[in-house]
Task: structure prediction
Amino acid sequence: APQHTGIILIGGTGDLARKYLWQAFFNAYMKREIQDSEQLDVEKQLDEYSFSVVTGGRSHAGVATTRLKDIFDNNVKCSDAHGSLSVCTSKKGEFFDKVTYYQLQRAEDYTAMCASLQQNFERLPSDTKIDVVLYLSVPPSVFRQSLSDFSAQCDFSKQNVRAKVVLEKPQGHDHQSALRLSEELLQLFEEEQLHRTDHYLAKSLVRTIIPFRMANPQLERMLNRDHVDRVEIFLKETVGVEERHLSYNEMGVIRDIFQNHLTQLLTLVALDLPANQSAAASAIEKAKVVRVLQQVLPQTSQRVLLGQYAAYTFEADREIPESNITSFVPTFAAALVKIPTHRWRDVPFILVSGKKLDQRSSYIRIVFKDGDVCVTNCHEQSHGKDDVKSSDHHRSKDAKAQIVFQIGHGAVKLPLVSVSKSLGEPDWPDSLDEVIDSDVFLQKNYHGDHPQHFYHATPVEKGDAYTTVIEEILQGKRESFVSTRQLLLSWRVWDPVLEYSPRKRPRIYDAGDPASLLNFVMRDGSLRFSAADVAQETEELTFSASLHHLHQAQTPASFLGHRMVSGSRESVAVQLAREIEQAAEAEIAAKGVFHVAFSGGTSPILLWQTLAQSFASEYWAHVHVWQVDERCVHAAADSHSNLFQLDYHLLRFVAVPWVHVHAMPVELAGRLCDSELQGARLYSDSLRRHVSNLQLDFVVLGLGADGHTGSLFPKSPALSADSQTLVTLTDRGPKDTPFRMTLTLPMLNRAKRVAVLVTGSEKHAILEELEGVEGGMGVVDKYPILGVNPANGTMTWYVDYDAYLGGEDFDNKR
Ligand SMILES: O=C1O[C@H](COP(=O)(O)O)[C@@H](O)[C@H](O)[C@H]1O
Result:
């Protein structure tokens, strides 16, 4: 049957459309025109393919049409792939004549735009298969409105057409906002209709990574912690932010590059190949990508370095004079990413990207450990470092064996997959052509070695990324698109950095970084700039030291008669994590086991993430994890479940045996917290069975703004539990939240160590209130936390500056 695509490009005069999208749509149009004409010569009655194109934006139609004409004259180009120049030029005119612009100001404007498409559709033969592609090349702030206007005003059901929606980044500004946006989008469209682009996934070289891995099982067997020293994923640029300050200032390099492109590239190296390497493997791959993303540890500040090129603030102020540009937006970052799986544990994945660097180059480099030798087809080793001719097949003396995926740019013109000859000759899949002679061989230095010490191949397909994106949409493929799950998991990795970076002063570097201020070293699992930037660091240190002293001076060492540890939110989490680790080591040495109980809520998340960094420690095998409290929800499916969060941020990264994870039985026989089913009693029985003297070694509590702790709320009958009642169900919590299960005060007060973790300025008022409490009858009923007082143990408050001193801005000025 004939085919027709109705293209709706919103934002058709914008930067992305000007630079890439119109060219890509024109390429798709030409490809089909050429195919049609070739096919007609051979076989007369082949399918026809046609397009309608409408575009819209906020500009007045007159202005926009002139702009579009300019784009078609100057940016949309004919190339060899388009056949003869004269034919291509006339086809370009034909294509441009198809484009109609609509000014979109109100919802009704969509009606007019879609009606014109509809008229085109009605003129088509009745058996035509029609697709509609709605491409949103607009700021995310208008996504929602555009999509709901489109859904409300455009009805193509007559032709049985379903729209494919294409969305550019950024999709939200953190996990929470991305989640909200996704939920809204999924109310309007189904997951298969949503196409979230990541143009790096559409780059020709990137698309050969999985086929290359599949074709080389002997190398694949070496992609693990026994053989790989590190994986570098770099996207270096020489340009600055150019005219994008308005949006860039909201993003910075983490949102612009790390959360999407670099994270996606990382998954292509780290995922386990599907066992069934058939044509269907690409579908399986998506599941594998999700699996890796689940395994990546969330970032911490110790594993990220931030920089900003010196002219950034000045440029931004010039472009947006009225705005009060924050000077801390990072234009450079280096991150050490960890994937604590059996395969990748201990292998640093080093991700780097920045603007205004010394060169433009993007690549993935898998560097092998010293002493790794090839598995098959090995050539004799030689150390003739300078004698390239005689050591054609060998690596330089100091160079380590490596596989490089040179994605683009750099000194070498071609995208290349390069394999050190010492690793043996690879099998190139059909998508790669071996390179035996190119300008790569004229280089002296290619990733620290001589280019002749590698086997090289380049992708057969040379199309630019956006042409591939558009082709995939037209052909109904999904390789270049990121699913909702992938998107949300990837935000989770970067959320902690986004949380602190607005308050973290980046290192300032000059264009090209002539002073090499951005070079860094990895030490003890963290990153440090190698060179001291004396002027900046003195200023920073003085600033942070004075702030720290100011805070310390205002924060006493005890609170309500117990020891208090204070600091930034991060440092409090780190100190508490250290104390838990020390206690674990001491208890395990003494009695072979460590029992720790965690509360839920948001406060412990950073603590769990910090503890997850010690995933390699062997003591986890001896740890028993208990819950202080749980909501009566389905743990496996509901993110409000405390166990779900504990697993998400900690348990899945560390080697706690699953039988040591003591989940509160809030769900029994398919029912939630049904008292008849005796869940509380079952949990008490477990405690009695496993915990000697019912004394937990460490209990981490939180503090609610109303003074509650665990799920012991003010005035709850659960507060008067007798000494034999260790666990109980409680009535509803605040704001009609579900019933809960909780340890009782008698159980908590048997603990050996109790920590109360309190962070955030919203806890300031309750801390002040608690300090003023006089004691006496009824105080525990009013402030349940005051009922916690371990009889034979210690109690320590871990309170961050925001909570103790109030105010928003006390954190992390290091
Ligand atoms: O998505 C983006 O990528 C470009 C770099 O892409 P490339 O294809 O030119 O390597 C970057 O300049 C831009 O800031 C970012 O939004």
